[in-house]
Specification:
With 217 residues, the protein is mostly helical. 82% of the residues lie in helices and 0% in strands. Helix 1 packs antiparallel against helix 7, helix 3 (55-74) crosses helix 5 (92-116) and helix 8 packs antiparallel against helix 9. It is elongated.
């Protein structure tokens, strides 16, 4: 019985570590991509607080970025993973990319809304003192945005960890892939071991996420 098989528990632990790697890679890719683009989707940053010589270009840029956020968050991770499997070999990479693409849209939308609701007082004070746009970004915008942005990241990391088993069902690696294989072979004792590992992993990530949010605030 798999419950009393140390070798299979070790194997399940390996798949659990793969799942963690997938979730960390996914949230890392999504977070970096959002940091590179979310300001371009915020109207007050693109055409308001930071002046532009080409208003039409900037408005088109806003529309493009917001459309990208909308498309990526509306596309299910499972569908993206199924498409990526045909391009990349099965493993955690297509699963991580699929999760990153979907969460990029969610984090992007949340971040642009966060920027558009900023306290304008520090920005106005910096402008009044002759600060350039980069100084406004680093001293007026990022200090207000980053704590909440990091909080969003930890929340989405929890969600990504729970969703890894879904993308894993299409051979995208981790516990999900092993779960699919054992279910297809009717090895329910091994499925039970995988479920125990999965539930334990989700609880662990939730606890880590809570601690990270306490450190952020």
């Amino acid at each position: 019985h798999a419950l009393f098989n140390l070798e299979y528990w070790q194997s399940a632990l390996y798949f659990s570590l793969e799942t963690i790697r997938m979730s960390v890679l996914a949230i890392g890719i999504a977070g970096i991509c959002v940091l590179m683009t979310f300001l371009h989707g915020s109207r007050n940053m693109v055409v308001g607080e930071i002046p532009s010589s080409n208003r039409i270009y900037r408005l088109l840029l806003i529309r493009l970025v917001r459309t990208l956020f909308m498309i990526t968050r509306a596309t299910p991770e499972l569908l993206i993973a199924m498409l990526l499997i045909f391009v990349l070999s099965p493993g955690i990479l297509p699963g991580a990319i699929a999760l990153a693409i979907h969460n990029y849209g969610i984090l992007g939308k949340l971040s642009t809304e966060l920027v558009e609701n900023l306290d304008q007082s520090p920005i106005e004070a910096l402008k009044a003192n002759g600060s350039n746009k980069y100084q406004i970004l680093f001293y007026g915008i990022f200090p207000q945005v980053l704590p909440q942005f990091l909080t969003y990241l930890t929340y989405r990391w929890e969600v990504i960890t729970r969703t890894t088993i879904v993308v894993g069902l299409v051979s995208a690696g981790g516990l999900g892939r092993e779960f699919m294989i054992r279910m297809s072979w009717f090895q329910y004792d091994r499925v039970l071991v995988l479920l125990i590992c999965y539930i334990s992993l989700v609880i662990l990530i939730d606890l880590i996420s809570i601690q990270l949010r306490k450190l952020i605030h």
